[in-house]
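DATA CLASS: polypeptide
GOAL: derive structure tokens

***
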Amino acid sequence: MTGGPYDPRAVANLMLDEADRSGIKVTNLALQKLLYFAHSIFLIEAKRPLVSGYFEAWQYGPVHPAAYSAFKTAGSSPIDFRATGQNVMTGERHALDLPEDPAIRRHLARIMSSYGQLSPGRLVDISHAKGAPWDYIADKGRTSVALGLRIPDDVIVNRFKFHKVSVGAAPVAGEPDEDTPLT
């Protein structure tokens, strides 16, 4: 079955479930980078988007606004809850439908085992790589009009290769707590 793109909050919930199984604590700031890496790598490998909506270039790297809002109340603490949906008519909260596709679940498990152990600062460093999607859009935002500093999927596909992972280095920016939109 080929579903998707999926609700980013549901994909984030699956990633948090995977983190719990591995004993990894994930903050909202880290979750945003992990979701971005999951979406980007899936986009390149499967040639289709993993999540619906879009990522934006925020101060500490790519952020999915819908997923960010869903977990915002965690602040800089590890997330210990799951995002829910809301019935627009009744206002009632409900569990989100999680992607059932085993290939999606394997992909997310792989992302969490590759990137989930990294500190938020390391994830920010990787997401800020020179020439990579965040850097490209943030730079364009400084020199021209980049609407909402949105990071389009074609930019991700063309520029994701600029992300380099060097293991063990201390993060350049220290350990950030909370992300904010670039202004």
